[in-house]
Specification:
The complex is a heterodimer.
Chain A (H helix, E strand, L loop, with lengths): L2 H5 L4 E5 L9 E4 L3 H7 L4 E5 L5 H9 L3 E4 L7 H9 L4 E4 L3 H11 L1
Parallel strand pairs in A: 2-3, 3-4, 4-5
Antiparallel strand pairs in A: 1-5
Chain B lengths: L3 H14 L4 E8 L3 E8 L6 H6 L16 H11 L3 E7 L9 E9 L11 H11 L4 E8 L2 E6 H8 L7 H16 L1
Parallel strand pairs in B: 1-5
Antiparallel strand pairs in B: 1-2, 2-4, 3-4, 5-6
Helix pairs in contact in B: 1-4, 4-6
Classes of the chains: A alpha/beta, B alpha+beta.
Chain lengths: ~110, ~180
């Protein structure tokens, strides 16, 4: 499934989509950034509730397909603008990490 | 990071990479705070570099000179209501007294404060990894101060390298003894 297709499902909405055709190959869930940095795999959809600008660097280093910001957490404009500049796909999820993962599990 | 001791390792590695002969690692705790100060006499940073150093995109993708260490330390300190301060003197402008000071303040009663972790392991790892460099470690809490100075060790040991098994084992035990005493 592509990142663009994910945004069309229930609960999900697009925030930045500079690389809409990027394929999602797996899922990783975590909020401790140093931990995620070494463990998320390339092509993962990464589910987190963190909203600091550092999430963009982590996604970039781990080469994730997209960041899914769960539980209706909103990002500030600086983070969104930086994500666009750095070509990082971000999606909002209106539900918690578990429900988000369940929805992904059905769709993938 | 999962424990502050891992941050210590990470930031002290920056000092080593900046050619510091001596890196001082100080942890001072009071009832409310953990104040971590890492002071080195390495090459230091220019004002321009200093401005970008907590930006996670500074070199992370291309050259990775500094990496995510400082942005993460800043985030972790701020998550507890604390702060991160960095000051630096670059060798080009301060040929005789260059170096960097990184100070992170954590409020330890904040629910998001990570535990201090195994500081002894971090210190022994640093010495083992860089036996040619000096480290001064001090940890003050309550009435107690735990300390280790590799310059003093070197004087006593003469030609025995600091990364030899016996020395590292002794350092670990010496620190642990001070904590339990």
């Amino acid at each position: 499934m592509t990142v663009k297709q994910l945004t069309e499902l229930e609960f999900f909405s697009s925030v930045t989509l500079p690389d809409p055709e990027r394929s999602i190959d797996g899922v990783y869930i975590g909020d401790l950034l140093s931990w995620v940095m070494g463990r998320a795999s390339s092509g993962d959809a990464w589910i987190t509730i963190m909203s600091n600008v550092n999430i963009l660097a982590v996604a970039s280093l781990a080469d994730t397909a997209c960041i899914i910001v769960a539980e209706n957490v909103k990002l500030d404009d600086v983070v969104i603008k930086t994500a666009e500049e750095k070509n990082i796909n971000i999606i909002y999820s209106a539900v918690g990490a578990y429900e988000t993962a369940l929805a992904l599990s059905k769709a993938l | 990071m999962k424990e502050i001791s891992l941050n210590i390792l990470d930031i002290a590695e920056n000092s080593v990479k900046a050619n510091a002969a001596l890196t001082e690692i100080d942890i001072t705790e009071d009832n409310e705070r953990i104040i971590l100060t890492i002071t080195d006499n390495g090459n230091g940073m220019t004002e321009e570099t200093l401005k970008t150093v907590t930006n996670p995109f500074y070199t992370t993708r291309t050259t990775r000179k500094v990496g995510m260490g400082l942005p993460l330390l800043k985030l972790e300190a701020e998550q507890t209501g604390g702060s991160l301060e960095i000051s630096s003197k670059h060798i080009s402008q301060f040929p005789d007294n260059h170096g960097t000071v990184v100070r992170a303040t954590f409020y330890k009663n904040h629910i998001d404060c990570t535990p201090l972790g195994d500081v002894v392991a971090s210190i022994t790892t640093l010495i083992q990894g860089h036996p040619d460099r000096d480290f001064l470690f001090t940890h003050s809490f309550g009435e107690k101060t735990v300390s280790l100075d590799t310059r003093q060790l070197r004087e006593v040991l003469e030609d025995v390298p600091l990364d030899s098994y016996e020395v590292i084992k002794w350092v670990g035990e010496y620190l642990k003894e001070q904590y339990t005493a």
